[in-house]
Amino acid sequence: xxxxxxxxxxxxxxxxxxxxxxxxxxxxxxxxxxxxxxxxxxxxxxxxxxxxxxxxxxxxxxxxxxxxxxxxxxxxxxxxxxxxxxxxxxxxxxxxxxxxxxxxxxxxxxxxxxxxxxxxxxxxxxxxxxxxxxxxxxxxxxxxxxxxxxxxxxxxxxxxxxxxxxxxxxxxxxxxxxxxxxxxxxxxxxxxxx
Length: 194
Ligand SMILES: Cc1cc2nc3c(=O)[nH]c(=O)nc-3n(C[C@H](O)[C@H](O)[C@H](O)COP(=O)(O)O)c2cc1C
Known about the structure:
The protein is an alpha/beta fold. The chain has seven helices and six strands, in the order βαβαβααβαβαβα.
């Protein structure tokens, strides 16, 4: 089965770590055959487009990333989430695959709570959650079954192979399940298969 799928990689990053993981995820999803929109929630320094609700409507899978802030997501990403009320009300965010990633300064500095905070919204959307789990040997190296999570160790540790490998595992898995979900998705409003 090689259904065409659209993947939106939506993220916020202030000092570049989350953006670096987002790029790895986007490249991997592209290599896996997906059409990809890599979208920061604020306009990128290179003038590229910022994320818009339409990117989620377009997507079959959404992979969303935020730095951890006091064990929670960054306010900038929350503002984007809060712009989705209209799309949510119309049922347009449902039945898509969702997955999350993050970066912290300290080990166990709130990675899992941040990933869960993102997933809370995904539940409200009626999303199909696809976490990486321990489904690949590389996941035993990065050790986070909830999503790719980097630790910058006080901004001394750039995104490394362990994190990149985890990002690749997650992106490949999301594309695979996005294809499967797309094949059975129904239009929420009509109840008919899309
Ligand atoms: C207001 C604020 C709160 C933060 N809270 C945490 C935290 O709870 N745990 C942690 O490990 N790092 C925390 N950090 C550090 C960021 O998570 C870290 O710098 C981030 O992973 C970098 O991501 P970025 O380079 O994509 O911006 C915080 C940073 C800021 C500015």
